[in-house]
Design brief:
This protein is of the alpha/beta class and 287 residues long. The protein is 43% helix and 16% strand. The chain has a domain of 196 residues: Rossmann fold (3-Layer(aba) Sandwich), CATH 3.40.50. β4, α5 and β5 form a beta-alpha-beta unit. The mean pLDDT is 96.
C-alpha cells in the first residue's frame, strides 16, 4: 500500500512516516517544501503524480494565538486546505485521513468528550479545524477524521519549534521559574502511539470520527510536575489559574477526549505517564 503523508516534517507527520514503514507500507513523505495545501492545483498535481492509496493530512496552522490574529490564514490552511486535499483524494481514489483537534469543543462538559458530542469551538483555530472536518467528510464520505490533543514527540512541532515537554525541560535546566496552569484538563498524546493507532485504523478500514489520545488525563501543571519528576529534576513548579496567563485565544477548560470508540475497535493507547517515560528515555538516548 502506498501512503502519502502531508506535513511529514511535523511532530505527528514524522511519526506517521515511521509507523507506516514499520508495517511495510510505502510512505511518501510530503513536507511543506514539497506541498502547500492552500494551493489547490499543486495538491491535485502532486497527488496525481503519487497516486496513493491513502493520504494522511497532518498539515495545519496550529499556533492557536496566531490564528486569532490571522483567521483568514487559519481557514485557508485548516479548512480550505483540507478541502483541496479531500478533493484530490476523491479524484485519485485515495482514502483521506484528516487530523483534527480537541479544540473543536468548548470545555463546558465535565466528562471526557465523545466523538458525537456537539462541537462548539471557542477560538479561531478550533473553528477552522471543525470546518475542515465538515468539508472533508462532505467531500469524501468514507474519510477518517482523527482528533488528537496536546501532542509531544520527536524534537517538537515544526510550526512551534518545540513542545510542552521540551519547553519544561529547557526552562528547568536554565533555572527559570516554572508557573503552570492547573485548571485546564487535557489528554497528553505521544505522537508514536497516536501514529501507530491511526495506521491500524486505516488497515481496518475505519471511517468517520475517532479520538486518538493516550489513556488518562491531567492538568498542564500535573503534566509538568510529572515531566520534572521522571527527568530527575528537583525544580519547583507553581500551579496557577488560567487567568494568570492571558492569551489572545480562549482555551477550553476541559478538552479531555474519550477513547471508548477506539477501544471498542480493540485499540487502546498506553497511559500518558507510560508514554512520557518512553519519550524521556528516547531523548536521553539521543542526547
Amino acid at each position: 500500500m502506498k501512503v502519502a503523508v502531508i506535513g511529514a516534517t511535523g511532530q505527528l507527520g514524522s511519526a506517521l512516516v515511521s509507523a507506516l514503514q514499520e508495517v511495510g507500507f510505502e510512505a511518501v513523505a510530503l513536507g511543506h517544501d514539497q506541498l502547500e495545501v492552500t494551493d489547490a492545483g499543486g495538491v491535485a498535481s502532486m497527488l496525481g503524480q503519487v497516486v496513493p492509496d491513502v493520504v494522511f493530512n497532518t498539515a495545519a496552522f496550529h499556533r492557536v494565538d496566531a490564528c486569532e490574529d490571522d483567521p483568514k490564514l487559519a481557514f485557508e490552511v485548516n479548512a480550505l486546505g483540507a478541502l483541496h486535499v479531500a478533493r484530490a483524494c476523491r479524484e485519485v481514489g485515495a482514502r483521506c485521513v484528516y487530523v483534527s483537534t480537541d479544540y473543536v469543543f468548548d470545555g463546558a462538559k465535565a466528562e471526557p468528550y465523545l466523538e458525537d458530542d456537539l462541537p462548539n469551538p471557542v477560538n479561531v483555530y478550533g473553528a477552522s479545524k471543525l470546518a475542515g472536518e465538515h468539508l472533508v467528510l462532505q467531500t469524501c464520505p468514507d474519510a477518517l477524521v482523527v482528533r488528537v490533543a496536546s501532542l509531544f514527540g520527536g524534537r517538537g512541532a515544526r510550526g512551534k519549534g518545540s513542545n510542552f515537554v521540551l519547553t519544561v525541560l529547557d526552562r528547568a535546566r536554565r533555572g527559570e521559574p516554572l508557573r503552570v496552569v492547573d485548571d485546564v484538563r487535557m489528554s497528553p498524546t505521544y505522537t508514536p502511539d497516536a501514529a501507530a493507532a491511526m495506521v491500524e485504523l486505516v488497515r481496518r478500514g475505519a471511517s468517520g470520527v475517532f479520538h486518538v489520545v493516550n489513556k488518562g488525563a491531567c492538568t498542564w501543571y500535573e503534566f509538568a510536575a510529572r515531566v520534572l519528576e521522571l527527568a530527575g529534576l528537583e525544580v519547583p513548579v507553581e500551579p496557577v489559574p488560567q487567568e494568570a496567563y492571558p492569551t489572545r485565544a480562549r482555551r477550553p477548560r476541559n478538552s479531555v477526549l474519550s477513547t471508548a470508540k477506539l477501544e471498542a475497535r480493540g485499540l487502546r493507547l498506553p497511559p500518558w505517564e507510560d508514554a512520557l517515560r518512553r519519550y524521556l528515555a528516547s531523548l536521553s538516548s539521543r542526547a
